[in-house]
Amino acid sequence: MTGKYKLDTRILLVDNKAEEVRELKSQIGSITHGTIRVVDSITEALKMASSWIPDLIISEWLVGDQDAANLLQALKNKPSIAGIPVIVCTATHTQEIKLRAKRLGVFDFLLKPVNRYALKWQLDLLFAELPTPVITRKEVVRREFEILAEQLDDETAISRVKIKRIQELAPMPEITGRVLEISRNPHAGARDFAEVIRQDQALTARILKTVNSAFYGFDREIGNIERAIVILGVEEVVQVTQAACLIQASLRWSDNPNFDHRQFWTHSLGAAYIARALARKLAGLDSKDAFVMGLMHDFGKVVMDQYFREIFNHLIEVSRLRRVPLYKIEKEIIDIEHAEIGCIVADAWRLPDKLVRAISLHHRPAMAAETDHEVHLAHVANSLCHMKNIGSSGNWAPEEPQTRSLNALGLERRDLVKIWESLRINIDSIELLV
User: Fold this and answer.
1) What is the pLDDT along the chain (434 residues), one digit of tens a residue?
2) 3-state helix, strand, coil in the chain (%, to 5)
3) Which of 19, 123, 169, 432 is most solvent-facing, going by the fewest CB within 10 Å?
4) At what angle do helices 353-361 and 373-387 cross, to 10 degrees?
């Protein structure tokens, strides 16, 4: 994301350290245009905010004999300026300070010396123009802080605030929603599904291409959607439609040489088919849910590539150079992982809670209970996909499946080769589906 900012962005810096102020002003100026004003006390900041209302305040935690908590509290108490987001930019970053600031509605923290990409991430979230803006930026921020105020005890509150606008920018494809709705109707037939799918010619062509691929191995070509539904069954067509909708939407703007969308979707489809095959072998798991979970497990990367491309490319490059898993680099630099972003999008799409949780924790299964089988299935399916080199997800240092997840699913590490062979996943055929 290059970030097209409005020209009259107002940013107020609150700091009494001249050298650090100069550095921060320089970094902000290299990212966005607008007016930057500087004050060296919390008292002056409040006076300035009341007369020259800024779009953002960036404050050192400790300024003279006051700290940013005084600023946050005062802003909350003044309705006319209560919606101004505050980023605390400091080297003083204890858990106690973070908790105190969080309760008062801080937008986020940045550590000094400031990482340019972390700073750009925050400015993009706040000021980059929406493709189709429907409300003003300040209205968005106020709504975000209203949500935050209601969720102060929710550990995911800050993450939800950070990407609330991504929920608006990454809606579930309309046809996918309608197909899922029809699938819940026990009286729906092939004709009902066909009527919806046929409304999108490109989607129809992609589904028929998928159905006629070597993956399914039919002797005779299937020429229309209704026949495809009759032959494959509703469940299979719903899953193919889900995959086709996501892939089709993604490939429209997949021009990033650092993140190959076709390879990414090959990886995601591989994980979907692996998860579905494993679920059919294991007790207590739903193969339909497993497919969606596998398909969506890395969807946060698609969102990051579309809306935050510059920092996403930087994260991929750091992962490549340091040979550290991408999710760890994301957490280190921008304090939010692609799995968390995917989780919030999945939640916005109203996927079942167990799938949302699986998407969120597929890199961190140790945080899930052993009975949380969907999390462990997502982790193992993703790991097997990497081990078998099915596509590429932009992660330069994939990890092997954790013993805890294998145990939770009743699998043995020494049997992974036999398990893989028993799944009968055709890698060449999966590549043809994208």
Assistant:
1) 344 555 578 999 999 999 999 999 998 888 887 899 999 999 999 999 989 999 999 999 999 889 999 999 999 888 888 889 999 998 877 778 888 888 888 888 888 888 787 788 888 778 765 444 343 444 444 444 444 444 434 444 444 445 555 555 456 777 878 887 887 788 888 888 888 888 888 788 878 887 887 777 787 888 888 888 888 888 888 888 888 888 877 876 678 889 999 999 999 999 999 999 999 999 889 998 999 999 999 999 998 888 778 888 889 998 999 999 999 998 888 778 899 888 888 887 888 899 999 999 999 999 999 999 999 999 999 999 999 999 999 998 989 999 999 999 999 988 888 888 888 887 777 776 77
2) 60, 5, 35
3) 19
4) 40
Closest CA to 38 of 68, 69, 17, 55: 17
Residue (of 30, 29, 97, 7) closest to 59 by Cα position: 97
d(CA 393, CA 259): 8
**CA dist 352 → 236, 332, 349, 365 (Å):** 19, 29, 9, 18
The tokens for 388 are 């078998």
Q: Which residue, 352, 381, 353, 363, is CA-closest to 280? A: 381
Tokens 């109203």: give the residue: 350
* Residues facing residue 420 across a β-bridge: none
Q: Model pTM?
A: 0.71
In this structure, how many other beta carbons lie within 10 angstroms of the beta carbon of residue 29? Answer: 12
Domains along the sequence of the chain with CATH = 10-162 (3.40.50.2300), 174-432 (1.10.3210.10)
Nearest residue to 237 via CA among 188, 275, 302, 169: 188
- Closest by CA to 234, choosing from 278, 191, 277, is 191
- Alpha helices in 282-325, H assignment, sequence order: 287-296, 299-307, 309-322
The values of phi and psi at residue 39, to 5°, are: -130, 155
Other residues' Cβ atoms within 10 Å of the Cβ of residue 167: 15
